[in-house]
Amino acid sequence: MSIDRISLTHVRIPLVEPFRISNGVVTEKDGIIVRVHADGLVGCGEASPMGGSFYSVDTPDSVWDALRQTIVPAVIARQPEDAAQANNLLQGLGGSPFALAGVETAFMELDALRRNEPLFRTLGGKEKSVECGLAMGIYESIDELLRSIDRHADLGYKRVKIKIQPGWDREPLHEIRKRFGSIPLMVDANCAYTRQDIDHLRTLDEFDLMMIEQPLAREDLDGHAMLQSVISTPVCLDESAENIDQVTEAIRKGSCKIVNIKIQRVGGLANALAVHDVCAEMGVPVWAGTMPELGIGGAQTVHLATLANFTFPTDVEASTRWFVEDIIDPAIDVHDGMITIPVGTGNCYRLREDILEKYSVREELFISEHRTA
Length: 373
Ligand code: MG
Prior knowledge:
Elements: E1 3-21, E2 24-38, E3 41-47, H1 60-78, H2 83-93, H3 97-114, H4 119-123, E4 129-131, E5 134-136, H5 142-151, E6 160-163, H6 170-180, E7 185-188, H7 198-202, E8 212-213, H8 221-230, E9 235-237, H9 244-253, E10 258-261, H10 263-266, H11 269-281, E11 286-288, H12 295-304, H13 319-322, E12 328-329, E13 338-340, E14 350-351, H14 353-358, E15 360-367
Parallel strand pairs: 5-6, 6-7, 7-8, 8-9, 9-10, 10-11
Antiparallel strand pairs: 1-2, 1-15, 2-3, 4-13, 12-14
The chain binds magnesium ion (MG).
Magnesium ion binds at residues 188, 190, 213-214, 238, 260, 289.
């Protein structure tokens, strides 16, 4: 394989409503689209940190700098032959998992395009439809939250997830159960509680939740194990599940019964597959989370979620759920709570140049010296 050029396009797309979690609020979505041109094919990836340092220390600016200063020049110079070689190189470089994911997923799509097959087949998935769930941020009022859940009911999402934090947990859950009965329901705390809250968190058992996601700090695996030993609701790890070693340690300690796998958090699809495999070996079911990413990253997550051990609905939602416009054609669509991957090869969703241009913040092109054309 000969890499001709790699382009980076930083886009910023307004959200249809602000997204608020326990760490802060965003009103726009930043994504850096990475396109790797090789042998007449184009593999497309997305590096998708949240604006500010919302979910992690990585920001759109820090990821942009890492890509243009270090990662992309190294990839151009070393000319990896396939996604496996690219991933070896990227793991050696280290740094922001968002930046690594942006490049690695582009190479994974190139692998799929060279085999003339859809990405999910390259990853080892079989189905082309996956279950998806509705994810709700924190709202100003419970009424607003309930109205928002109502608004999305017609798409038939397979479960509802709400963000919680101290002071916003039992009451909204109580009202949701009152209004929507026994719908599949889960909560995500994004690290908002401490070990002092374990007695309080135990009381969430009465809401019959599918899981409680990342209640405690990222590094507090022992605290999560303490909580899991006294709560019936399965604990799911998100922020803590950064790599195979941490996931293995967490499962051994009894810190969780479920793992949320995010392509962006673990630094790409190969790493996501590795975490999936370790969890499967250890008998722990997983599901596919999102930042949420724009359409390219969202679609990659759908492809990933076709693998066998992805047991719970993915957080990927319809494109119209968060973005005033999405960067892909067709947009991600939800019917009866399912997303069906269109027929095609690679990502199967085509990048929309017009939308990229419309919301472009900056762009940079890297041309290979090996280029023969
Ligand atoms: Mg989460």
